[in-house]
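R.M. (postdoc): so does anyone remember the format we settled on? I'll just put the structure tokens first.
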């Protein structure tokens, strides 16, 4: 029987760069002592108080169908959070609750593109972006950056990449690079999108993990709220990755379109999970700071290890729960280095090539193990890199 070409072409075939992660998991499941620094999964799980609120809601009977757009209380609370963070008055009608940030991105792309239209995104990129674009029957187009520029897109690259495009996906704080876009970069993004009459899909799921500079949403810049769909999530800010609570915020008429899509796809998310999300948001910034604190602390561990050698370099670790390491001095690609590191040291990192061509020669390290294990892993990683470079020089 014939199968859908749309579904089979989502990943465009070929290797997806996640072989190291999968092999590390198999090794760990077999009992090998692997230090996994691959995915952005908190080592400290969802706070017990949030789980207690979820349990109480479920036992209290909120287990039936919930409003497809999200419960009124949760939408209002998210809108209030966005208003406070952006300075742009936001109403509940401009917010729709989704099954995580990924579902928000999928819905947003359907809301602003038609089949065959082009959607641009900045390389390096979160791995699902091109596949999600294809899943919406749009055409992906990369906007290249350079490590030497801190992986910041230039005005020229933005203008060229957005020519004829319907939308641009931006992500700050950035996964995988840890870059936090300054106002000037965001203004250039806004100018290019306005000139091309393109939407901005702003992935802001790491907005509570900013270590240098400040997080600025495109929605906060003059004239951009009307063309911006902001994507948020509790996965990173509240360690609720498995609960699948996210949102998309934008013009009310576009949110109404997305609500129609939700009716025909997820039909909303469970009410007891939404109640837990409401509790989490109402706990305030103190809980968010407590959840983000380990990653801020661990970036200093990485910085200290790197300061003791000169071979492995990194960009300014400005945000998110990752660091991107430049290992080009070893003579290996990111994939070759990650494979060799796993074989020799039982340390798993993500090859930069998993996130696009512009990250070649880099590896991404997730700061998601205890401080002492991360310290050990970084010491072993830098020694391993030095050994490779020494062998290559002989």
């Amino acid at each position: 029987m014939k199968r859908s070409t749309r579904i089979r072409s989502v990943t465009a075939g070929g290797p997806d760069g996640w072989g190291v992660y999968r092999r590390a998991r198999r090794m760990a499941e077999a009992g090998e002592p692997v230090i996994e620094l691959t995915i952005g999964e908190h080592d400290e799980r969802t706070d017990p108080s949030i789980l207690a609120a979820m349990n109480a809601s479920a036992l209290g009977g909120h287990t039936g169908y919930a409003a497809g757009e999200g419960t009124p209380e949760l939408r209002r609370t998210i809108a209030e959070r966005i208003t406070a963070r952006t300075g742009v008055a936001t109403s509940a009608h401009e917010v729709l609750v989704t099954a995580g940030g990924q579902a928000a991105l999928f819905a947003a792309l359907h809301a602003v593109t038609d089949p065959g239209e082009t959607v641009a995104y900045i390389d390096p990129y979160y791995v699902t972006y091109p596949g999600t674009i294809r899943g919406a029957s749009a055409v992906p187009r990369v906007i290249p950056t350079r490590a030497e520029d801190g992986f910041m897109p230039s005005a020229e690259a933005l203008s060229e990449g957005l020519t004829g495009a319907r939308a641009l996906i931006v992500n700050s704080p950035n996964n995988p690079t840890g870059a936090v876009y300054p106002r000037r970069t965001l203004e250039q993004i806004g100018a290019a999108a306005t000139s091309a009459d393109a939407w901005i899909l702003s992935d802001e799921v790491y907005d509570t993990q900013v270590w240098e500079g400040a997080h600025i949403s495109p929605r906060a810049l003059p004239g951009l709220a009307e063309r911006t769909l902001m994507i948020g999530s509790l996965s990173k800010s509240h360690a609720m990755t498995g609960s699948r609570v996210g949102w998309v915020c934008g013009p009310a008429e576009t949110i109404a379109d997305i609500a129609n899509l939700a009716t025909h796809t997820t039909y909303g998310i469970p009410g007891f999970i939404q109640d837990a999300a409401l509790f989490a948001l109402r706990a305030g910034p103190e809980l968010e700071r407590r959840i983000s604190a380990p990653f801020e602390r661990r970036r200093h561990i990485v910085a200290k290890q790197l300061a003791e050698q000169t071979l492995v370099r990194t960009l300014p670790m400005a945000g998110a729960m990752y660091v991107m390491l430049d290992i080009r001095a070893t003579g290996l690609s990111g994939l070759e280095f990650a494979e060799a590191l796993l074989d020799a040291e039982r340390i798993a990192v993500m090859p930069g090539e998993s996130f696009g061509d512009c990250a070649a020669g880099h590896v991404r390290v997730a700061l998601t193990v205890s401080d002492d294990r991360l310290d050990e892993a970084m010491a072993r990683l830098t020694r391993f890199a030095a050994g490779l470079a020494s062998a290559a020089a002989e």
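R.M.: ...and that's the designed sequence above, right after the tokens. Also worth knowing: The chain has a mean pLDDT of 95. The chain has two domains: 5-45+286-388, 61-283.
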